[in-house]
Amino acid sequence: MKNPHLAKRYWKNVTTPMGSSDELVHSYDDSIDLSLGDPDVTTDFRIIDAAFRDARNGATHYTDHAGEVPLRQAIIDMYTEDYSHTRSLTECMITTSGCHAMWLVLEAILDDGDEVIVNEPYFTPYIQQIGLARGVPVVVAAREEDDWQIVPERIERAITERTKAIIINTPGNPTGVCYTRQTMEAIARIAVDHDLLVIADDIYTAYSYSAPFIPMMTLPNMAERTVTISSFSKDYAMTGWRIGYIVAPDYIIQTCKDINENNVFTAPSVSQRAAFHALRLRNEIQPSLVAEYRARSEHCYERVCETPHMSTSGPRGAIYLWVNISETGLSDVEVAARIFREAHVLTLPGTAFGPHCGNYLRLAVCVGIGQITEAFNRIQQMTIFSA
């Protein structure tokens, strides 16, 4: 939209399918939403009640600029207890969501024209987040035939003298891929050899079904060159609390803190208290949450496998299925539109996650098994999914 009252850099902006899905879902009274990754499970009441008590007792003020000390210490302790990895308090900062953390990090590390390597399919906001920090995204394709693992040779071919960082996301959105240790070690080697940072977008760490999650920063020589971004949104069903964090070398944390003084100053105090209690209760809360989403993923996988002209890999991680619909002979946008129009089921077309993803749809298993069943009962009545 060209308007003199708008910044010119936004004149060519187009609302993404992810950005418009919340409006579409209200088009039909019986819509089933498989589009957004917003866990439908309400935050555990023990977290809510404890945060409410803290608010009643006065936790309604600004916190330490980097985040309240008890929460940062709990995060540091979690890495020590769960991954035998030690960090200092000055290497952790609390943010207002994982997306806010990503923006702060990119703003802190990028000069104009610096390049950031992003693997396609990618989380939709990455490209614009890099652009907002005046960087240049360099997209490297992952492929289904490689099981969506990063191929090191493709990364190395994309590196130039302006490359500053590589973004990785495992378990991944939208594919659900969990990078193997071999893949992680290959990325680490590339980062060390080329003196690059790795930005690890660790949003779905609890949802690693086939093997334990490996934080990039725990690999040899990677603590000093890994910036870990995480969030309580998915691992604790706390999307609405908007709370995340950064773990990184202290010079990056200090710069992010200085930038944030001019942005949101501090993350919400009540949300920080909720995050503290979530960590404290993680071994009680997460197992049932993960079991629920794994069961949904497996059920959705079974229904995809029995649907003509659909295929996907078995659930490995995250809360999504990345479904190949190329056998329909239609584009992802056409298929998604027809599924919504004919079956009243909202999905996201693959090109929301990269321009070369036109053979795919992303399905988020953020509704119960009953609704997933109903969604596929409707989809399988469509002519494009008939045998």
From TrEMBL:
EC number: 2.6.1.-
UniProt KW keywords: Aminotransferase, Pyridoxal phosphate, Transferase
Single biological process term from Gene Ontology: amino acid metabolic process
GO molecular function, one term: transaminase activity
EC main group: transferase
SUPFAM superfamilies on file: PLP-dependent transferases
Domain Aminotransferase class I/classII large: 30-379
Superkingdom assignment: Bacteria
Cofactor annotation: pyridoxal 5'-phosphate
One of the Pfam families matching this protein, by short name: Aminotran_1_2
Family named by the database record: Belongs to the class-I pyridoxal-phosphate-dependent aminotransferase family.
PANTHER family, alphabetized: ASPARTATE AMINOTRANSFERASE
Protein name: Aminotransferase
Source organism per UniProt: Cutibacterium porci
